[in-house]
């Protein structure tokens, strides 16, 4: 009986994922309503539950894909994977206002460069304070503080050790998770309530998954603006970190 | 038909991601540069045109609305497959680097949002303040 049910879930994994996520959403909105009187958005709670389940899945299986590494939940991997995530992000543009994007275009580009530089140098400073002194390690950890893709790409390009590359991925993951959880709590203080600040926010944060989750938990109407700039961040980081930023670090670190 | 909207969305995404890949190759970067962003811009422009010509009926729009309303559930599924355990196993340095970079960027959001505002917008805001006073 149990085996039959498990086999059913595995065989229909995407459909199972729809059911599991739907139930999670229902519970989250219920909690949001009853416990926080709607102050903490239901989707924020759902994302936190999702991350908690991902932690549980990671501990259980030792894999890298959270809950999706459990066979019966493999559909979560498809539903929340890059393909459907990007499709849904593009679809949010359906509600976007072209004028707002044009008006804030320049600020968006500026925020992208600032986002890469600031994250990178914060990462470099933290690495220095933990005793790293060689340019390759510093650059790689700085790249990880940008996003978890920039770290390993830069690390590969400048020849960092695999240990340092793993650390840079972890730093990028911490960033993306914290952006997802933290955004709804700081939104009020940083003025994240209009298309312009959402464009800036997307460019500064840069982690597509973090921004996608953070804005979903704050105000879904802002998603298209933040997501649009954020999707340029990783590419820009992969361009700047192993080149210009690496040279700057090497000039100082040797 | 609903599928027209979905197909429009899919085609925009494929073209955008393709252009993002090409841009990555031109820049010699091992990543897609803004593919999704390009796709979004394209979708906004195409929809704008189609609506003006009245070529996008309600059914087709429903196909787009469906996927944009699936956005949050998809993001929850995305959260459920993050490598949270891996992030925490990275140890104090990874956690501090991640946390500080997020805090620094949060702090910059209001600063940069102000920089790009045009004079006219500020003028209006000041006027509103004047009126309030």
Automatic annotation (TrEMBL), chain A:
InterPro entries in alphabetical order: Mal/Na_symporter_MadM (IPR004691), Mal/Na_symporter_MadM_N (IPR018402)
Keywords for the protein's UniProt record, in alphabetical order: Membrane, Transmembrane, Transmembrane helix
One Pfam short name: MadM
Transmembrane segment boundaries: 12-31, 43-60, 72-94, 106-130, 164-186, 198-217, 223-249
One example GO MF annotation: sodium:malonate symporter activity
Domain Malonate/sodium symporter MadM subunit N-terminal, chain residue ranges per copy: 7-252
Source organism superkingdom: Bacteria
Protein name: Malonate transporter, MadM subunit
UniProtKB/TrEMBL annotation, chain B:
Record's keyword annotation contains Transmembrane: yes
Transmembrane residue ranges: 7-27, 33-51, 63-81, 93-112
InterPro entries: Maln_transptMadL
One GO term describing the cellular component: membrane
Pfam family, one: MadL
Keywords of the record: Membrane, Transmembrane, Transmembrane helix
Protein known as: Malonate transporter, MadL subunit
Organism: Alteribacillus persepolensis
């Amino acid at each position: 009986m149990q085996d039959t049910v498990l086999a059913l879930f595995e065989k229909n994994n995407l459909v199972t994922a729809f059911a599991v996520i739907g139930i999670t959403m229902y519970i989250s909105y219920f909690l949001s309503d009853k416990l926080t009187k709607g102050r903490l958005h239901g989707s924020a709670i759902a994302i936190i539950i999702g991350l908690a389940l991902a932690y549980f899945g990671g501990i259980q299986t030792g894999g890298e894909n959270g809950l999706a590494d459990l066979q019966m939940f493999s559909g979560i991997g498809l539903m929340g994977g890059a393909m459907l995530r990007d499709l849904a992000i593009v679809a949010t543009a359906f509600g976007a206002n072209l004028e707002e994007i044009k008006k804030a275009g320049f600020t968006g580009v500026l925020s992208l460069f600032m986002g890469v530089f600031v994250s990178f140098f914060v990462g470099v400073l933290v690495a220095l304070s933990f005793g790293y002194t060689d340019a390759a390690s510093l650059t790689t950890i700085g790249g990880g503080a940008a996003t978890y893709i920039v770290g390993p790409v830069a690390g590969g390009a400048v020849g960092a050790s695999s240990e340092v590359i793993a650390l840079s991925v972890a730093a990028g993951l911490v960033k993306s998770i914290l952006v997802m959880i933290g955004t709804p709590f700081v939104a009020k203080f940083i003025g994240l309530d209009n298309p312009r600040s959402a464009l800036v926010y997307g460019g500064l944060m840069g982690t597509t998954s973090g921004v996608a989750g953070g804005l979903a938990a704050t105000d879904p109407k802002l998603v298209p603006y933040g997501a649009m700039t954020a999707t340029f961040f990783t590419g820009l980081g992969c361009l700047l970190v192993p080149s210009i930023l690496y040279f700057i670090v090497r000039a100082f670190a040797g | 038909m609903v599928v027209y909207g979905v197909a429009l969305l899919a085609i925009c995404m494929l073209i955008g991601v393709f252009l993002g890949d090409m841009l990555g190759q031109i820049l010699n970067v091992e990543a897609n540069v803004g593919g999704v962003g390009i796709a979004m811009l394209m979708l906004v422009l195409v929809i704008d045109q189609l609506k003006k010509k009245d070529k996008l009926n309600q059914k087709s729009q429903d196909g787009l609305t469906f996927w944009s309303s699936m956005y949050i559930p998809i993001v929850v599924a995305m959260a459920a497959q993050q490598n949270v355990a891996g992030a925490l196993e990275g140890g104090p340095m990874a956690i501090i680097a991640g946390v500080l970079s997020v805090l620094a960027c949060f702090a910059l959001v209001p600063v940069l949002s102000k920089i790009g505002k045009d004079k006219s917008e500020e003028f209006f805001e000041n006027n509103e303040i004047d009126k309030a006073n």
